[in-house]
Amino acid sequence: MTAEQTFTFWLTCPQGVHGLLKKEIEAITGIVAGDWNKGVQFEGTLEAGYRVCLWSRLANRIFLGLNDTVNVSFESLQAMVEAIQWDEHVRPTGSLKVSFGGRLPEIRDSRFGAQKVKDWIVDQFREKHGTRPSVDNTPDLTVYVQVAKKRMFLGIELTGDSLHKRGYRQATGPAPIKENLAAALLFSKDWPEKSKQGESFLDLMCGSGTIVIEAALMAADYAPGLLRREFAFERWLLHNPTHWNTLLQEARERRTSGLEAMPSVLGFDSDGGVIEKANETLVSLGLSKHARCYQKSLDEWTLPTHWALKPGLWVSNPPYGERLGDKPTLMRFYRTIGDIARSQLSQWSIGMLTSDDILAREIGLRPELKRNFYNGPIEAVFYSYGVNDSREQNTTDPKQQEQTQALTNRVAKNIKQLKKLIKKEQLEAYRVYDADIPEFAIAVDKYGDWLHVQEYAPPKSIPEEKAQARLLNAVEALSNYFEIPVSQVVVKRRERQRGTNQYEKKGQTDRSFSIMEHGVKLKVNLHDYLDSGLFLDHRPSRKWVQESAEGISFLNLFCYTGSFTSHAFKGGASKTVSVDLSKTYLKWAEDNLELNGGKAGPNHQFVHADVMKWLKETDEKFDLIVMDPPTFSNSARMSETLDIQRDHGFLVAFAMKHLNEGGLLLFSNNYRQFKMSEKVLKKYDVREITAHSVPADYKRKQPHVCFEIRHIEE
Which Enzyme Commission number(s) are listed (predicted)? Predict the structure, then answer.
């Protein structure tokens, strides 16, 4: 192999980066790169390949091509592999590994594909040398095979671990950004050239400092390959140590010169733990003379005066709020970004990576360029803002202001109408708004010092982005009106539910607390489930149960979190039995009973069972039964599918078998088109009490139907 011999090199990179990678290759080697199946390719000498391995800040992996073909078939793959003289690349006593991607009719699994390629290679060694390389996860040679629709590629991997693993990462914050994506953001803002001009760098939300460290490495002309212990090509038989050592020495000399001339690079974050680790990394890399991170929140940030800063570049990866409930909290955070940009950094170029266009707009600056990237699985946009002395804040849309004011006025009106009721009954949880005006299709419940906001799914005619922006504006208006921090406004989207989906767990924050209702303590959880654990529309019925429970036996079917049971206990019930199919909610029901001084036992039983099956098997009778079944359920744990309109006759009949003479079944459900069957009406004394069971804060809509059902006296 001569120094002038050329090879084909294939490079992979993160999505959205390959255009920048082509420019980087040209800057490193002077060679114009082109597109390749999985990224970028270029033709060059082995020294050019070494240079890219050493200096690329954007690539993931680099392969040296041995062969490729447009004949995509199993036979062609075998011929392509067998045509290579593998003993030129690895010793018979060495080790190898095969990385296989793609599929053929005969190869439907990548592990099987790797096994076949490995077999063809070792068969060649056995025939020529009577021995074969071993298979190892840290091999002397990694063979790369990629089967695409129109072409197959065969090569060897030069890098080993992905190049984004620089080796300096010690600790990360909650949402770390990969090193080569951080570098891509900096390249997008032309940071290498800005740093040569002596301009400074800032990251005001640096987390574990990845962007800061990458900016410092660029500013110091510090080759990222110098941080690696070794490259895969160093165990390759055709490796040229002389060329490689020459390049390493050149890189070290450039680093020495670059460290002396680099400008200031600063990071800031509110998390002192990750800041400490970031600074340790900067020290270990020899960058701490000109680069440092400080603990300071965005709200407290001011332009440092103890560093000589030349207006330059601010790049950050602020939190995105991937969950809908996180975004209202972040709106003001993004506005603060804009405020700082206008008031303190008007001479600085700015770049922000976020996945949410609504949040980006809150910055209030007009981007000069947008570029799409992927931060892990999340598609994000890098918003690039140029230097602009006259940056103007976006003014709020007058129509939007008018709509938001209308929402606030309606909430104020509703609160005024409920004021006497809230005071009289000392309520801590109640509904303050329920889609009263068309622009805001949300339900808002107040739980003590918290707001629970549920958005009904918007019509398909309204764009998702517009609907979400309207929701976030509503949240801010509610926060201002009630003087409740946005962080205590929990936002969820309510859609048409099937089966038990409405009760399924949505998260695992375990941020429950209790509220008081008619002297009864009840645990609620606004974060982890679609519903809070307390149906506020049944408040009058719970009060009635409490007032009627003295000395009676009480059965709560489909008990959910047992709020009716707690009211019955507080009212003096001699015995309670609560039945539900969910162990989670039965435990919650037990917790509610304990909050009120009760305890599970013979007199207060919590039964984990299918209600229909349990009713068929038990012989117990009760004075008062409450049954509030779901509208529909196809839970796998139930013996049969439940449709309340179709099946309520059976449910009522079985429940009535367990009702004492003179007793009462309180039956309700939330199916708005519900019609009681003629059979039930004829067989029992049925009285609809929906009008009395719906509280004042739900009068605008009928959230449920409710019936008193008794045995007909003979």
Answer: 2.1.1.173, 2.1.1.264
CATH number of 179-220+262-385: 3.40.50.150
Phi first, then psi: what are they for 618, rounded to 5°?
Answer: -90, 155
Q: Following CA atoms 659, 660, 661, 664 in sequence, which dihedral angle do they give, to the nearest 10 degrees?
A: -50
Q: Where in the chain is the domain with CATH 3.40.50.150?
A: 179-220+262-385, 511-710
How far apart (Å, rounded) are the C-alpha atoms in residues 590 and 565?
A: 9
pLDDT in tens, 641-661: 789 999 999 999 999 999 999
How far is the C-alpha of 655 from the C-alpha of 710, rounded, in Å? 11
The three-class DSSP label of residue 710 is strand
Contact status, residue 290 vs residue 263, Cβ threshold 8 Å: yes
pLDDT of residue 497: 41
If you average pLDDT over residues 24-33, what whole number do you get?
97
pLDDT score for 458: 73
Q: Which helix (H) or strand (E) holds 643?
A: strand 642-643
CA separation for the pair 22, 59 (Å, rounded): 10
Helix (H, G, I), strand (E, B) or coil at 166: coil
- Judge whether residue 464 has pLDDT over 80: no
How many of the other CB atoms lie within 10 Å of CB of 634?
13
Report the alpha-carbon distance of residue 141 to residue 137 in Å, rounded. Answer: 10
- Phi, psi angles (nearest 5°) of residue 381: -120, 135
Q: How far apart are CA 658 and CA 651, in angstroms?
A: 11
Residue 499 pLDDT > 50, yes or no?
no
Instruction: Indicate whether 322 pLDDT > 70.
Output: no
In a 3-state reduction of DSSP, which class is residue 121?
A: helix
- CATH 3.30.2130.30 in the chain, residues? 6-157
| CA–CA gap between residue 641 and residue 647 (Å, rounded) | 9
Determine the straight-line distance between the first and last CA of the chain, rounded to whole angstroms.
Answer: 108
Torsion of CA 572, 576, 582, 586, to 10 degrees: 50
Where do you find CATH 3.30.750.80 in the chain?
A: 396-495
Work out the burial of residue 460: count CB atoms within 10 Å of its CB; fewer than 13 is exposed, 13-18 middle, 19 or more buried: exposed
Residues sharing a CB contact under 8 Å with residue 459, sequence separation 6 or more, in sequence order: none
Half-sphere exposure of 688 (CA within 13 A, CB side): 11
Nearest to 223 by CA among 257, 200, 197: 257
Classify domain 6-157 by CATH architecture. Answer: 2-Layer Sandwich (3.30)
* Tokens encoding 626: 């409450």
Pick the CATH number of 511-710 from 3.40.50.150, 3.40.50.450, 1.10.10.10, 3.90.190.20: 3.40.50.150
Q: Buried (b) or exposed (e) across 91-114, using 16+ Cβ within 10 A?
A: beebbbbbbbebebeebeebeebb
Matching residue, tokens 């098997």: 617
Beta bridge partners of 446: 430, 451
Say which DSSP state 487 is in.
G
The per-residue pLDDT for 500 is: 39
Could you tell me if 683 and 654 are in contact, meaning their C-beta atoms sit under 8 angstroms apart? Answer: no
Is residue 167 within 8 A of residue 120, CB to CB? The reply is no
Which amino acid is present at 435? A
Q: CA nearest 42: which of 166, 59, 179, 57?
A: 59
Token pair, residue 49, equals 């390949």
Residue 315: closest CA among 368, 276, 353, 342: 353
* Segment holding 336, helix H or strand E: helix 327-343
CATH architecture of 396-495: 2-Layer Sandwich (3.30)
Q: In degrees to the nearest 10, what's the CA dihedral of 65, 67, 73, 75?
A: -130
Q: What is the DSSP string of 359-377?
A: HHHHT----SEEEEEEETT
pTM of the model: 0.72
- 264 with 201: CB under 8 angstroms? yes
- Which amino acid belongs to residue 653? A
Q: Alpha helix (H) ranges present in 528-610?
A: 539-548, 563-570, 583-595
